[in-house]
Amino acid sequence: MTPQTFKGGIHPPERKDATKTLPIERLFPSTKTVWIPITQGGAPNKPLVQVGDSVARGQKIADTDAFISAPVHASVAGTVKKIENHLVAGNVDLPCIVIEADGTDRSDFLPPLDPFACGHDEAIARVRAAGLVGMGGASFPAHVKLNPPKGSKIDYMIANGAECEPYLTIDARTMEERADAIVDGVCIAMHITGAPEGIIAIEDNKADLVPILEKAISSRSGASAAFPVRVQLLKTKYPQGGEKMLISALVAREVPSGGLPSAAGCVVQNVGTLKALSEAFREGKPLIERALTISGGACETPKNVLVPVGTLIGDLIPGAVQLRHGVAKILSGGPMMGIAMKSASFPVQKNTSGVLFLTAAETALVEESPCIGCGRCVSICSCRLNPVLIVRAVKGEDLASAKRYGLMDCVECGSCGFVCPARIKLVQRFRIGKQLVREEMAREKAREAARAAAKETAKGAQ
User: Fold this and answer.
1) Co-location of 240 and 148 in the same domain
2) Cβ within 8 Å of residue 324, ≥6 positions away
3) Are residues 159 and 60 in the same domain?
4) pLDDT tens-digit profile of 424-459?
5) Which residue(s) pair with 307 in the sheet?
6) pLDDT over 70 at 89, yes or no
7) Are 83 and 47 within 8 A, CB to CB?
8) How distant, in Å, are the alpha carbons of 63, 109, 286, 371, 396 from that of 132?
9) Which of 199, 138, 205, 135 is nearest to 170 (CA)?
10) 247 shares a domain with 157
11) How confident is the model at residue 87 (pLDDT cuts 50, 70, 90)?
12) Would you say residue 2 has pLDDT above 90?
């Protein structure tokens, strides 16, 4: 099997040895309490419970009528103690439902549903009811991705097991320990989308997983056995796990600017999401648990863990997770795309792939210096953009030029910042630029609405 890849990219130190052989360990917060953000993908939800309510594990506790959204469920059985703002990933305070576990295992799961016997609409409804979102980091509602726009022809269902971020090993461990559920999830997703071919994509630093996955594929029975699924190795390179990079490497297709993978005939889902998809149908289990890697040079006890959604990272310390002196940075996610947090008092969410405790030697705590125009960021950009021109336009508040140079096509992988000798905070500036573009679009939309309303008023006056 010849490993495939994409043009561009970088090779940061992998630093996966600390956890790659460690099995997933089930943990529970020391306080027996979870802080569940009411929105974890898509449009904002509203609480469906009140303080004092008794809830069962798996019971829906927050939802909205919006299509691009995902409901949230209780991850433990217990009593709702508070509904208040709390620090979450991204260093913002957002509403959370606080549940104190009562020590029971009361559950309120959905009834099991045969994924190959139900209709398309019923299957999509089940995916949404289970609150499934992309678990690779984006947290995009899975039922939307599995229901591409009308007229789209899906040729490939791609299971993303690349896990190209340094330190993180939770996807690899999930593939090793739950290969059967992942393969089942791939087949279910193929059935829902109509994709005639399924591909499980992994980097060649995880080649030892190939026989495990192939065994799971060959041992299928029943309706799932009819779906053609194969494993494909990819070269170990960052950001190999990006949707656009996967599609380019696997099927030599390009996602158009501003378009979705479905425009290239593909649907991409993280292997953890596909495992959860299988559980949503076979067990009726909503997405209430999250597997993640806890690691970093300042972590004394690196682990792969499975915890209830809403578990505060701080409630795992210092019991199950012990730290060394000299924690310089706490990251939610990996070192390339993760978010630096001001404390460990934030909850695990559906898209939390890892938490890293880094030493000063593992971080780039240096000041920016002037750009020397070396072009390194251009040569490695996996999206084939020109980061140096984009950042100059953003700094000059020339948003029109920034968009023309590809600002909105940037996937924020951080490769450009990694190779920049001036240590310019490129991704951070791109995020600011994107926010300014969105704000300008919102203002233009409001102006158009005001003009339309004025026209209607004028017509009425006549």
Assistant:
1) yes
2) 297, 298, 299, 300, 359
3) no
4) 999 999 999 999 999 999 999 999 999 988 888 888
5) 290
6) yes
7) yes
8) 13, 14, 7, 42, 40
9) 135
10) yes
11) very high
12) no
Convert the pLDDT of each residue in 271-299 to its tens digit. 999 999 999 999 999 999 999 999 999 99
In a domain, 4, yes or no: no
**Is the bond preceding 318 in cis, omega lying within 30 degrees of 0?**
yes
Task: Check if the beta carbon of residue 131 is closer than 8 Å to that of residue 73.
Answer: yes
Q: What percent of the chain has pLDDT over 90?
A: 91
The answer to whether residues 170 and 182 touch, using CB atoms and an 8 Å cutoff, is no
User: Which of 218, 219, 154 has the alpha carbon at shortest distance from 192?
Assistant: 154
Span 132-150, pLDDT tens digits? 999 987 899 999 999 999 8
Structural domains of the chain, count = 3
DSSP 354-378: EEEEE-GGGS------------HHH
Cα–Cα distance measured from residue 389 to residue 407, given in angstroms and rounded to the nearest whole number = 10
Residue 1 has a pLDDT of: 67
For residue 373, the Cα-to-chain-centroid distance in whole angstroms is 33
Separation CA 430–CA 29 (nearest Å): 36
Coil, strand, or helix at residue 282? Answer: helix
Rounded to 5°, the CA angle 420-368-390 comes to: 55
Tens of pLDDT, residues 201-248: 999 999 999 999 999 999 999 999 999 999 999 999 999 999 999 999
Q: In which domain, by residue range, is 415 found?
A: 366-462
Query: Side chain identity at 150, as an amino acid letter?
Result: K
Give the three-state DSSP class for 185. Answer: helix
Domain CATH number, residue 221? 3.40.50.11540
The answer to whether residues 137 and 48 belong to one domain is: no
Nearest to 157 by CA among 318, 268, 47, 69: 268
Residues 6+ apart with CB under 8 A from 97: 35, 36, 38, 47, 49, 61, 62, 72, 74, 80, 82, 83, 310
pTM, entire model: 0.93
* 45 within 8 A of 62, measured Cβ to Cβ: yes
If asked whether residues 213 and 257 sit together in one domain, one would say yes
Name the percent of the chain lying above pLDDT 70: 100
